């Protein structure tokens, strides 16, 4: 309906999983697939949500960010230039050569494909030898490292006091307490 009436479309990354497991990821993947194919203008709650939004997870946030980054990568415009199609490389290699040694390949082989920040692309034996960390364990380490490296932004003391008073007042009025 939004596309028919030329209206902005808001979607979300919904899932009903209780923990950041396989169910959470496949439900989020299909939710995001719907958001992307509908040409959504805004994806709310794109990362971290569990239980249909009743809870959130730092690990799920990291896992979703990996998935969102992959989606962004696959949605890039397709380059149809002669350089992208390696026309000169095809001439250079000819019918009997190989492409790995040609300059076109050498200039691109490290950056030609998506490089994950969370996914482990090693084989099982290598993964096991490195500690056999499951995805949520790697995400746990990653979010903790991000929080350790985080620098608290400078905030005017008057604004900080006003925000703290606002939160205290809202909690007193029945709002949910926060751990921040």
Structure description:
This protein is 46% helix and 6% strand. It is mostly helical and 180 residues long. The strands form 2 sheets. It has a two-stranded parallel sheet. α1 (22-37) links the parallel β1 and β2 (42-44). The longest helix is centred in the middle third of the chain and has 17 residues, at 58-74. The chain is extended. The model has no long low-confidence stretch (mean pLDDT 90).
Short description:
The protein is 46% helix and 6% strand. The chain has 180 residues and is mainly α.
End-to-end separation: 40 Å
> How many β-strand runs?
4
Low-confidence stretches: none
The number of helical runs is 7
Largest sheet properties: 2 strands, parallel
Average pLDDT confidence is 90
H/E order of the elements? EHEEEHHHHHH
How do the strands of the widest beta sheet line up side by side? Answer: 1-2
> Structural class, from secondary structure content?
mainly alpha
Which key features would you list for this structure?
single chain, 180 residues, mainly alpha, two-stranded parallel sheet, two-stranded antiparallel sheet, 46% helix, extended
Please outline the helices and strands.
Blueprint: E1 10-12, H1 22-37, E2 42-44, E3 49-50, E4 55-56, H2 58-74, H3 87-93, H4 103-108, H5 124-129, H6 135-149, H7 157-172
Parallel strand pairs: 1-2
Antiparallel strand pairs: 3-4
Helix pairs in contact: 1-2, 2-6
């Amino acid at each position: 309906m939004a596309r028919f009436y030329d209206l902005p479309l808001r979607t979300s990354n919904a899932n009903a999983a209780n923990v950041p497991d396989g169910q959470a990821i496949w439900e989020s993947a299909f939710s995001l697939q719907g958001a992307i194919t509908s040409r959504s203008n805004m994806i709310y709650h794109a990362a971290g949500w569990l239980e249909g939004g009743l809870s959130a997870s730092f690990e799920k946030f990291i896992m979703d960010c990996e998935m969102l980054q992959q989606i962004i990568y696959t949605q890039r415009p397709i380059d149809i230039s002669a350089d992208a199609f390696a026309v000169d490389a095809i001439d250079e290699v000819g019918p009997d050569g190989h492409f790995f040694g040609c300059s076109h390949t050498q200039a691109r082989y490290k950056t030609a494909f998506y490089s994950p920040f969370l996914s482990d692309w090693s084989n099982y034996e290598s993964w096991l030898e490195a500690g056999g960390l499951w995805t949520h364990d790697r995400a746990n380490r990653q979010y903790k490292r991000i929080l350790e490296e985080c620098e608290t932004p400078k905030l005017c003391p008057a604004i900080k006091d006003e925000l703290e008073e606002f939160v205290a007042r809202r909690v007193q009025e029945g709002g949910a307490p926060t751990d921040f």
